[in-house]
Structures are given as structure tokens and as C-alpha cells.
Specification:
This protein is 32% helix and 27% strand. The chain is built from seven helices and nine strands; from the N terminus they run βββαβαβαβββαβααα. By secondary structure, it is of the alpha/beta class. Helix 1 (39-53) packs across helix 2 and helix 3 (101-107) crosses helix 7 (184-197). The strands form two sheets. The chain has a five-stranded mixed beta sheet with strand order 3-2-1-4-5, sandwiched between helices. It has a four-stranded mixed beta sheet with strand order 8-7-6-9, sandwiched between helices. It has helices spanning 39-53, 73-90, 101-107, 144-153, 162-166, 168-171, 184-197, and strands spanning 2-7, 12-20, 25-34, 61-67, 94-97, 113-120, 123-129, 135-142, 159-160. Strand 7 (123-129) and strand 8 form a beta hairpin.
Length: 225
């Protein structure tokens, strides 16, 4: 089963094709570009590229897996709108996975780990995972100080993700080099059982965790003296 994976919850704009078999998930093609200001310009061309790299066409897809965030409003919705639109047009199911799970799950190595991405405003999106990669708490948004304190309470002794790199001094935890951004293979792996079972497609509900920066005007300024 050929599955498209997309994620735009972080500055890394990711598109990948994976093959889901009865007992494995295999990468067929992958593209990732780090640019926090170009999600809309990058994702669709990257989808076209991974399809071409795998000598596949949209009609060959069995399902689409998308990272649900948390992430900034504008960037995150690019991936979710792309996935939802393609799923509707092609008549195939879409499945969502928390993007932080695709950072924390592959980082699991027997001890709790803090996974964090940059939430801007001097804050982090974060979650804590146990030694098997299962989420213990989160996703949440808070200052790095609060995230670090909660992670230590849960026994975390290491951090991972772009947010951990950016706030390493505040977190005061060893930071692993990778994965820095949501891992496409992990997103696919975390949705693989749903894909294999042919589960009904899911509504891709974004994990914004807070309101967007832009707000609608509440009134009109007078134009006459």
C-alpha cells in the first residue's frame, strides 16, 4: 500500500512516500526543506517530486498521513489542507498523527524523553514520552522553564527536537541531534495499523493549542472629522 506523508507543523516542510506492508513500513521517496516562511510554496511541489521519484501517480495512493501539529497556525494548515483536499479528490482515507509523536517516538531509548518544537513567543510546543515512545503528557505549550520542570518530574533526562536545540540552555538537559523535526517514517509507522486495517478516514483536526496571532477587526475607524 503506497501512502503519502506530509507535515508542515515546524519550519521543516516534509513530503514522503512510504510503502506499508503487512509487517513493515518502507520509505520510497522523501523531501524535506527547512524554511519557516515558505510552507505554501514548497509543499505541493515536494508532493509532485516524491511521486515522480517513486515513479508513482496520485491514483496509486492508498492513503494519506498528515502531521496534526501542534504548530503555528499558517504553516500547519498548509499540510492539513493539502492532505484533506487530496484525500477528498482521490477518494482515499486521511489519517492524522500528532507531529510531536514523530519526534518523541523515534527518540525513545529506554528512558523518558522531552520532545519540543518552537512555538515562537519564547515558548515551546512539547510532550514527554516514556522509554517505549508512548506519550506520557502533552502536547502542551508553555515556556521552556515550565516544560523542563514538568519533564524532570516525569523522569526525562534528555531532550530532542528543534525547540530543544533553540532553548537548550534554559532546559538544562542533554539534547540529541536527531530527530530535529517530525520524522516522516515515524508518522507513517504510527498510522500504519489504521492503514492496514483500511480504517475509515479521519477529519484532520489541527492541534493549534492557542489562538492565531491575527485577529479580525472589531470595529471601524471613523473617516469623517
Amino acid at each position: 500500500m503506497l501512502v503519502l506523508v506530509v507535515d508542515s507543523s515546524t519550519p521543516a516542510v516534509t513530503a514522503a512516500l512510504v510503502e506499508v506492508s503487512a509487517d513493515d513500513v518502507t520509505s520510497r521517496a522523501h523531501r524535506c526543506t527547512v524554511d519557516a516562511r515558505a510552507h505554501g510554496e514548497l509543499l505541493a511541489p515536494q508532493v509532485d517530486t516524491v511521486l515522480a521519484d517513486a515513479d508513482a501517480r496520485p491514483r496509486d495512493l492508498t492513503a494519506i498521513v498528515a502531521g496534526l501539529g501542534p504548530g503555528p497556525f499558517t504553516g500547519l494548515r498548509v499540510g492539513l489542507v493539502t492532505a484533506a483536499t487530496m484525500g477528498q479528490v482521490l477518494g482515499i482515507p486521511t489519517y492524522g498523527v500528532c507531529s510531536l509523536d514523530a519526534i518523541g517516538y523515534p527518540a525513545a531509548s529506554g528512558a523518558p524523553v522531552l520532545a519540543a518544537s518552537d512555538a515562537r513567543r519564547k515558548e515551546l510546543y512539547w510532550a514527554v514520552y516514556d522509554g517505549a515512545g508512548q506519550r506520557l503528557v502533552g502536547p502542551e505549550v508553555s515556556s521552556a522553564v515550565v516544560a523542563a520542570a514538568r519533564a524532570r518530574e516525569l523522569g526525562a533526562s534528555v531532550a530532542v527536537g528543534d525547540g530543544a536545540h533553540r532553548y537548550a540552555e534554559v532546559l538544562d538537559l542533554p539534547v540529541r541531534v536527531e530527530p530535529r523535526y517530525p520524522d516522516a517514517a515515524a508518522l507513517a509507522l504510527l498510522a500504519a495499523e489504521r492503514v492496514r486495517a483500511g480504517a475509515p478516514g479521519e477529519r484532520l483536526t489541527p492541534l493549534y493549542l492557542r489562538r492565531p496571532d491575527a485577529v479580525a477587526a472589531t470595529g471601524h475607524k471613523p473617516v469623517l472629522p
